[in-house]
Model the fold of this input.
Amino acid sequence: MKISVCIATYNGSIFLKKQLVSILPQLALHDELIISDDNSQDDTLNIIDSFNDERIKVYKNTISHSPIFNFENALKYISGDIVVLADQDDIWEKNKLEVIRKSFENDINSISLKMYNGVCIDESDKIVKYDLFKYIGIKDGLFLNIIKNSFIGCNIAFSAKLLNFVLPFPKKIPMHDSWLGCNAYIYGKVEFIDEKVFQYRIHNNNYSLKNNSLMQKVKWRVNLVSSLIQRYIDVKRTS
Done:
C-alpha cells in the first residue's frame, strides 16, 4: 500500500515545520508527500527545502489563490493507492498513518473515503476542544452532508480510485472536502472512524470556519448539487 499525502501551502511558515516534522517520520520509503504551493511569499518553500527529503515533491499552483484548486493541483500528481489530505498548520499524532493503513486493509481496491477524529488546538498548541467530531457535529449520509457539510479535508483519507470521479473539480463547488465526501457517498462508501489521530488548529485564518451569509450558504448548496448531478451524468455517459 502506497500512501500519497497532499498538502496545499500558502504563506504557511508559522506552523508548517511542526506539521512536516509530525508527518515525515510516518512515511514509508515508497510513500510520497505532494505539496502544491500557491505562490507563497514567506519562508514556506525554504522550510520545505530544508528537510532535503526525496519523498517530498513540490509543485507550483498558478491557477488561483484558493485552497480548493490548490489541493486539486496536488491531487493531479499523486501515485499512491491511498490519498491522505493534510493542512499546513495542523499536527499529526504519531500513529495517524498506522491507523489509516489498518483501516484501508480491506478497502484498497474499492472506492472508499474515511474521516478520522482529532482534537482542536489553538495557535499556542493548547487543546481547546477534545473531540473534533462533536465540535463539527458530524452527520452521516449524502443528503445530510449537502444540508450541512461534515467533512474537513485535513482529516480525510480516500482510495485513489475516487479521483476518477472527482477530477477535475467543478469551478463553483463550495469546498473540496464536501465535493470529495459527497462523491464518495455516490460512487462508493464513507466511514467515520472515531480515533483521534491529529490536532486540528483553530485560528482566525481557518478557511472552512469563516462565517458566511445565509444567501451565500444557499448558493453554495445549489452549486454543489448541480455539480454532483452534472458529474453523475458525465460519468454515466462515459461508462
Remarks:
- The two ends are 27 Å apart (CA to CA).
- The CA atoms of residues 233 and 239 lie 10 Å apart.
